[in-house]
Amino acid sequence: MHLRGLSTRRRVRVTAVACATLVAGPLSAPAADARPAPEPPLTTMSITSPPGGAHVRVLIFHGSAAAGDESPVVDAGIEAIERIGLSGPVDQRFEVEATDDASVFTSETRLGSYNAVVFLTGGGDVLDPEQEAGLEAYMEAGGGFVGVHDAARAEPYSDWFTGLIGARPAATSPTAVQRATVEVGDRRHPATGTLPLEWKRPDQWPNWVKNPSGEVHTVARVRESTYRPGASANGADHPVSWCRDYDGGRSFYTGMGGTVSSWDETDFRTHLRGALLWTSRLVQADCKATITGNYKAERLTPANQPGQNDQIGEPHGLVTAPDGRVLYIGRGGADPSRPVITDWNNPDVGKGKGQIHVYDPATKNVTLAGELTVFGNKGGGDELVKVEEGLLGVELDPRFQQNGWVYLHYTPHSGVNRDTRTAERRVSRFTLDLATNRLDLGSEKVLLKWPVQVHSCCHAGGGLAWDSKGDLYIATGDNNSSGFSGGYSGNNPQPNFKGVSFADARRTAGNTHNLNGKILRIHPEPDGTYTLPPGNLFTGREADEGGGKTRGEIYVMGVRNPARIFVDRTTDILYAGWVGPDAGEPSPTWGPAKYDTFAVITQAGNRGWPYCMGNKQPYRDRNLPDPSQPLGWYDCDHPKNESPNNDGLVNLPPVTGNNIWYSPQGGAPDYPRDAGGVPSYQKDQATYRLPWLKGGGQAAMNGPVYRYDTVGASAVRWPAYWDGKWFVGDFYDADQPRNAVVMDPRTQGSGGLPVHSESLKKIVPVGNDGIRNLMDWKFGPDGALYVLDYGRGFFTSDAKSALWRVTYQGGGPTPAADRLARGDR
Q1: Are 73 and 257 in contact (CB under 8 A)?
Q2: CA distances from 539 to 352, 555, 701 (A)
Q3: Among candidates 535, 657, 550, 665, which has minimal Cα distance to 606?
Q4: How confident is the model over 215-263, as pLDDT tens digits?
Q5: What are phi and psi for residue 140, nearest 5 degrees?
Q6: Do β-strands 461-466 and 518-524 pair in parallel, antiparallel, or remain unpaired?
Q7: With helix as H, strand as E and coil as C, how does 62-97 read?
Q8: How many angstroms separate the Cα of 732 from the Cα of each of 189, 216, 704, 792?
Q9: Taking Cα atoms as reference points, which of 441, 451, 502 lies closest to residue 476?
Q10: Tens of pLDDT, residues 734-765
């Protein structure tokens, strides 16, 4: 009902509406001759469900402190909300009343008979103290509030109203109507769940004096790169719509709706409809899922006792068991008090202990389950002195609770050849005694082994993951030096030790006959052997130039150092991240700067290294006799391995572009390209397509995809809001990412960019006393996030090395089920 009358502002005071006293549920209408019940004071105001559930009411207030005619947006908004109230399922309809008379907020107008109040106002000081007190009492009694666009300018002197709205517009916000892209990050709230992932629309886009993210639950953000935000721009995180449970009630605000045409948009009306359904108590929704204060991060493991690794080794990976136990591994770096042997003439060169620890949440105690003697304790510094081998990855058998099988990816010290400076990498299965948390080292079954060079560091990889079919994915680094190429392609064919190249990743990552620089996929069998699942990149039988040139275990080739991988067993999609080379800036001669990379991998393929990076940005070829001289640019669509160190195919699979890449200059650098498709690589010509990403010192640490357990009853599980979101992070915590991203299923497998991202740094705490050096992160069966902090040194553990747990404390959706209103039926 749209009330019109003869007031000078074309709206009259809302007529009195019969107000029952309290509670949700059917109430009897008073007899015709009965006197009305005494009016409750504001301090005890109740929000009523109308008699029989027949009338859910929404009040639109459009009063303004500004002189002059009313904005045409008001009429458009009122009429649109009236249409919204009459649409949809019968039990989600509501009655609409409108007024510009602020006395509606005082007690005699019985504000409590409205399920929600909409501020469709031009701003300014529109309520006197008594009226504002009435609005406060209304919210305290469980009322609902929706603010639209300029409502954020109302009551500018009220801190309480600022909290109700969530943020205030900057004085220099742009006023022009501009077409922009809205990133719809909340895929569950009724205001956003059915909207496009990338919602393109014209409107006025306010900037905020203070970014409210973390204090409110942001459901949508506007992408500033798609319009001109002006000098007061908020940056990559620019909230535009949000909600929160506030002061006993529910508040929803959108910065959109500043134009008449907005109210004619189907999607915008859908947005407002969802907001009104929640604030009116017709449906439940979670508006607490990203409130920072609803999360608790706690360190689970104390520091080691002096001279021992009783709590943790050099952190390198974790996995959670179905019963809640957490197994985590130490690579092999020793306590700083223990000697590091770097002399190749010493039989103990590089000898270290790779630890497997078990954290039991029932007892909150840690057990050192076992130690493997590994090649992995060889110091830091020069490429020829440090080493990244050791105990690299851990996974549990899909039937772990029955068989206790643990899979470990490691470099045994017994496999080191000191003469050739080569070693053996292997993936083995061990048995854990489930009663004592002790690993039976004599139970080893070696599934897969392959040679690696250990003359020069680096890039061992290490991640392990299962899919739903029982296939095991194994991430291996390119086993290549970071030097000898100026920090660019890593394709110098010249350096070698006793004939084994250590600076040419075409020998490894770019080689179809080498298991390094790959993500392998095998199907382990109960007897400790494995078979090859269909759909890998090669069958192992391909021939080129007269012989077998491939390995059938290869699922993905062309990765540099994928330390962390994850398979979402709901979809069997593989997620991976890897560290890039060391060049600090792009070079028009050699190619892109270092790119750390994340990728969504939906099928077998070639991810480019050392030929191409990012979104198929090529490097320059080099070869004998003079690798210092640049040759032609690599062809990402038709790459060729013409290295003298290649023993695989020459003609390689085409490169698939990656989804996320970042350099010291920023996120997803892209450049103008010439007629041949070669980027300019001029730093001042770069466009940064993912502005929420920054680099510098960087080391990508891929994370999980969260899946919400709809059956379980864990009180600490992360909310359903995060379901399907992919967690990407970096070892470092300065400007590097620690984000949850949303991908578009239509484009993610072919290199499509994320459509939405939000920072986790206020939830997964950073800083010296937080989780500063992120080494691994996984969700447990309780829905909590378990995180390994590496510590503050390298190639060792220290007092900051720890296992953490991040839990959710915010409770379920609101309003409570017994407080839901009932619309017309």
Answers
A1: yes
A2: 37, 10, 30
A3: 657
A4: 999 999 999 999 999 999 999 999 999 999 999 999 999 999 999 999 9
A5: -60, -30
A6: unpaired
A7: CCCCCCCCCCHHHHHHHHHHHHHHHCCCHHHCCEEE
A8: 33, 27, 18, 11
A9: 451
A10: 889 999 999 999 999 999 999 999 999 999 99
